[in-house]
Structure formats: structure tokens, C-alpha cells
Amino acid sequence: MNYAILDVETTGGQYNEEGIIEIAVYRFDGEKITDTFISLVNPEKEISFFVQKLTGITPKMVKTAPKFHELAKRLVEITDEATIVAHNVNFDYRVIRTEFSHLGFDFVRPTLDTIALSKTLIPGIPSYSLGKLCSSLGIPLSDRHRAHGDARATVKLFQLLLDKDSQKNIIQTSIKHIKYPSLNKKIIRLLEELPQETGVFYFHNKEGKIIYIDNDTNISNKARQILTGKGKRTRLLQLKTETISYEITGNDIISLVKAQNEIKINQPEFKPRKNLSPFIYGIFKENSNENFTIFPLNKTNKKRALLAFSSYKKAQNFINQNNKKDYLFSKNLLKKINPEIQKKEKYVLLSGKGRTLSEKSFLWIEKGVLKGYGYYSLHSQIKNIEKVKKIMIPAHGNHYISLLIRNKLFVNKGLNKIIY
């Protein structure tokens, strides 16, 4: 298998109007680099001041550099019969395809994204930005924000990912390559502009009708997995889908609530496959004593769980950590988390991360029951119930969503509680 591991630096500016100022490509056969192409590029347009400060590339440096059309043939050659690999590949691939489209050439290659692969194969890293990820993994990274430096680090990162993918499942399913050549260009077109952000996405048929709704913390990655899978159901989705739209939510709980409620409203032809719950063990409070117990979750006891975890160790660590902080932990936790006690709190707003840095999201709960969600500006005041209900989007939850909310509120500290 041949890979073209690359990075581009651009002028910055409006979406789809960026120009390439530097490009680096390392052709990699899975074990060693077999070819290299590195060049500054004259973008024939201004370079933003921010980009100049970030990369150190100035207009003077690119003034005598070759223009993209002079490099295009070499780029086609070094990526021929190879899978393009990049850190946030959607960006690099889109910019390169745009440059080729200006030349009247349809540049199509399968792609792999090292961000998505890293999140699957190396979970639990605080940040998946190239710099911080390489630092966490001990991968040397020199000449940061220069194409050759970032691309070389991506080679090392990808080599590590190949080693970790012992069954080769992730590599195979991540490649945007379909055995039906007539569909290949269509699928790439559908996927190339989807963001790697949290939200809800919609597949539309040629009449514009929604035929599939889903959500994920990485819209691009999830849509790619769906449309490049195998089987009759996938084949039908590939044939019927003409456009994909999406809405960023900035919040994983809201994306799930929004998707589930809109599926009920729109009744799309295809429904998402039910994902297995990540919760395996629950924390329970037995009436006979003041201590908490940990049991495996099952159909009969899951509704009584106060909190849920992916492992016994995580549940035990949560209890131990809180016991150290507060000797009245048991009583205090019961008051905070017990659904019966929460029902006595008539109106509750849980605020969290919004879609942008200038806003917050919120979940609105009445007597322990989720009633809706919404967003508000950091500069606005939502101190009265009437205003909340005006901007709220009505929605309903379920037991699984309730567990997610409680975990985010009491374990991950990702929500702030306001009682009205």
C-alpha cells in the first residue's frame, strides 16, 4: 500500500479562496519514505499577517517560487495510486482539489485522516492537535507550521498508527474508497466539506427529502464510515443520497437529543444502527445503609443507577476520590444525584459548551425531566424562566440521556447547574 503523506500551508482568508504557499509530500510504503516533494508556492495573492507570523513565510519568500500550475504534474505523479494522509485531511485535500479545479483537472484520491485514526487507536489524549499529540507520544516535531516539518511528523505519527492497528480494521474502514467506481467521485464530493466537529448531519435524496439523520462528535468521520461501509443498506444510501447538510451543536448531549427528536419528527427512510452503551457498571445507593455499591448494569437495574461508568475501576475511583474530599460524601452525593430528589427541583438549567467561544448551550429540566435545549450569548442574561422558554427548543430525553447528563454534571464537570 502506498501513501502520500502531506501538509500544505495557505494564505488564509475566505473559505475556498485560500492559496497554497508551501506544500510537502512524503511518499511512504508503510515502512520507509520512497519519494519526497517539498516546495514553496507563489499563491498569486496576499498572505494574511496571521499566517506570516505563524509560519514565518513572507511575500518576499514566495515571490520567485513556482506557481501551482508549474507544480501540478509533480503532485499528480507523487500521489498516483496512493492514499493521501494528513492531519485534518479534509482541509489539505480540499485546498489541493480547489487548486486543481482552477486548472480544469479533477484531482481524486482516497484519503486517511490521522486525527480520526489517533482518536480511535490512541484514546484519552488531552489534545489531538499535531503539536500536542506528537509531544504526548514523544514524536519529534521541528519546523512547526512549516509544511515539511508538519508532514514529516505526520509520517512518524502514521507509522505508529499502522503499528497499533494490528487487525488493520481502522485503516481499511477509514479509506474513502468504494468498489463501485461510478460512485467514487460522488461520495468524495459529498464528504469533502463536512466538518470534524460535534453535531447532527442529514442525508438528502434528489428531491431534498431527509432520508437519514445521525449525530457524532466528528461529523466528517461518522458520515464517511456510513457511506464507505459494505452491505445492501449502505449501497442503497450511497445511491439515494445526493446532498449532506449538517448543524454544529458544540455539545455531544445536545447532538444526541437533537438527532433522536428529529428522527421522531421526520421519520427518515433509514435509521441509525443502535450503538452499544459505553456504560457497563453503575453506582447504586441501597436504602439499608449509607454506602454506595457498584454493580454491572443490566435491563432490570439500569434505571436505578445514579451514575454509570465504562469500567469498575472508574466507578471505584470516583467513589474513592470523593470520599477523600468529603466525609459526608454519601449523603451529599445522594442529595445531588438521586433522581427522586432532583424531581423536587422544579426548574433547572444546565449550561455547557456552546457552538462558539461567545456562547453557551443549555439543557432545560423541569421536575427531573428534560424539556428542551438551546443556546445563549455570554453577554445575555437568562435569569427568568420566560426568557429561557422563548429560546428553548422543545425536546425529550430517555434513560440513557439522563445518565449522560448526570455523568457530565457530577463526574466530568462539563455542566454548570442553575436552579430557578
UniProtKB/TrEMBL annotation:
Under InterPro entries, the record lists:
DnaQ, GIY-YIG_endonuc_sf, Ribonucl_H, RNaseH-like_sf, RNaseH_sf
An example of a Gene Ontology BP annotation on this entry?
A: DNA replication proofreading
Task: Note the superkingdom of the native organism.
Answer: Bacteria
Residues of the signal peptide: none
Q: Name one Pfam family in it.
A: RNase_T
Task: Kindly list any coiled-coil regions of this protein.
Answer: none
Q: Which UniProt keywords apply?
A: Exonuclease, Hydrolase, Nuclease
Q: What does this protein do?
A: DNA polymerase III is a complex, multichain enzyme responsible for most of the replicative synthesis in bacteria. The epsilon subunit contain the editing function and is a proofreading 3'-5' exonuclease.
Assembly mode: DNA polymerase III contains a core (composed of alpha, epsilon and theta chains) that associates with a tau subunit. This core dimerizes to form the POLIII' complex. PolIII' associates with the gamma complex (composed of gamma, delta, delta', psi and chi chains) and with the beta chain to form the complete DNA polymerase III complex.
**This chain belongs to which protein, by name?**
Exonuclease
* Organism listed in the record: Apibacter adventoris
